[in-house]
Amino acid sequence: MRSIWNGAISFGLVSIPIKLVNATENHSIHFRQIHLADGGRIRYRKVCELDEEEVSGGEIGKAYEDADGTMIPITDEDLAQLPLPTAKTIEIVAFVPADEIDPLQMDAAYYLSANGVPAAKPYTLLREALKRSNKVAVAKYALRGRERLGMLRVVDDVIAMHGLLWPDEIRAPEGVAPDSDVTVRDAELDLADALMDTLGEVDMDSLHDDYREAVEELIAAKASGEAVQPSESKDGGGGKVIDLIAALESSVRAAKESRGEDVSEGDMADIHPIKKTTSGRTAKKTTQQKSTPKSTGTKKSTASTARKTAQKKTASKSTSSASSSKGSSSANSAKKQTSSGSRSTTKKKTAAPRKRASA
Q1: What are phi and psi for residue 4, nearest 5 degrees?
Q2: Strands 3-11, 158-164: parallel, antiparallel or unpaired by DSSP?
Q3: Is residue 14 exposed (0-12), middle (13-18) or buried (19+ Cβ within 10 Å)?
Q4: Which DSSP string do the residues of 153-187 spell out, in sequence order?
Q5: 244-258 and 186-199 are packed helices; what angle lies between their axes, rounded to 10 degrees?
Q6: Tens digits of residue pLDDT in 120-166
Q7: What is the per-residue pLDDT across 329-349, written as a single tens digit (0 to 9) for each?
Q8: In terms of Cα–Cα distance, which of 161, 129, 158 is closest to 7?
Q9: What is the pLDDT of residues 33-82, one digit of tens each?
Q10: 152 near 137, Cβ under 8 Å?
Q11: Could you tell me what percentage of the chain is helix, strand and coil, using 3-state DSSP and rounding each to the nearest 5?
Q12: Within 10 A of 9 (CB to CB), how many other CB atoms are there?
């Protein structure tokens, strides 16, 4: 790897010649600007605004713009005369526990390589001292025309340096937190803990940039003249969360299913106990509504309504049949009484002439 800076680590009276090497690289895909009409490349040229002529790099210098717009030229010679002890030195100022460094201060990362054979022994000494102390070194160094803050730590068998922002460059998080007071219940915290445990740890080496791969496939398809098929966008769940408990339960269930674990309804019961409301009936109804799907409840209510209707029809039929049987029996008895009455009358009429005849 090519070094970008040569200097030394100042460790008390010990000086360790080192080379500074970039520890990271950017894999982002970069695009060029083109003219849509003909595909020509768009280039930026440095032009002096006074004479409107293009200026080469050798004719360009530095200047500080004052508040009133006045340009104050600053040359490299002016900067070189400034007292900057860290111009070629990484000066260690303290050793502190790693957790005292705010991750918000983290900037670019570099590897420090021992420069030459004589630097191997003091380099190894500093590396092993950092390992045994479980601490990191806070240092000051100068790079690209400004003094910077850095943190030295051990990565495998190499001393790495992270550029740090100065403390006054970190903005306070004012007005960022939610304005209203929010109460988090124990049941919600239990489910959040369960989700964290279910997701577990991840192998950082297995993570990769899916978007970059998609862009590379898009470029390859267009370069070969193939038709580009739009990909189906997944629902990111960006809507409003109505029920936080339900959302957490669904997340835990989905995480378990993705890991091939057996998921049953009983798994959620011991995670979040249902709290009773002020009315016992209300809590009971709410529990039944949550545990019973809507379609089942509709079918049950339809079946019960059909049963009741059938019972009513049966009852009305039996009532009508009973009333009709009663009516028919009473009619029959009336007919019998009428016929018997007529017979007795006939007998009496027949008997009367007989009496007269005998007289």
Answers
A1: -110, -5
A2: unpaired
A3: middle
A4: EEETTEEEEEEE--GGGSPP-TTTS-SS-----HH
A5: 20
A6: 999 999 999 999 999 999 999 988 878 899 999 999 999 999 999 99
A7: 444 444 444 444 444 444 444
A8: 161
A9: 999 999 999 999 999 999 999 999 899 999 999 999 999 999 888 877 77
A10: yes
A11: 45, 20, 35
A12: 25
Distance CA 141, CA 300 (A): 77
Q: Residue 127 is which amino acid?
A: R
Report the relative pairing of strands 135-143 and 106-114 from DSSP bridges.
Answer: unpaired
For the stretch 326-340, what's the b/e string if a residue is b when 16 or more beta carbons lie within 10 angstroms of its beta carbon? eeeeeeeeeeeeeee
- pTM confidence score: 0.59
Residue written as token pair 């509709």:
298
Measure the CA–CA gap between 272 and 244, rounded to whole angstroms.
12
In the numeric block, the tokens 């798994």 are attached to 267
Q: How far is CA 209 from CA 24, 26, 109, 205, 226, in A?
A: 15, 12, 20, 11, 23
Average pLDDT over residues 204-230: 86
The answer to whether 151 and 162 have CB atoms below 8 angstroms apart is yes
Hey, is 119 helix, strand or coil? helix
SS3 341: helix
Q: Which of 213, 218, 245, 242 is nearest to 229 (CA)?
A: 218
Q: Is residue 93 a contact partner of residue 11, using CB atoms and an 8 Å limit?
A: no
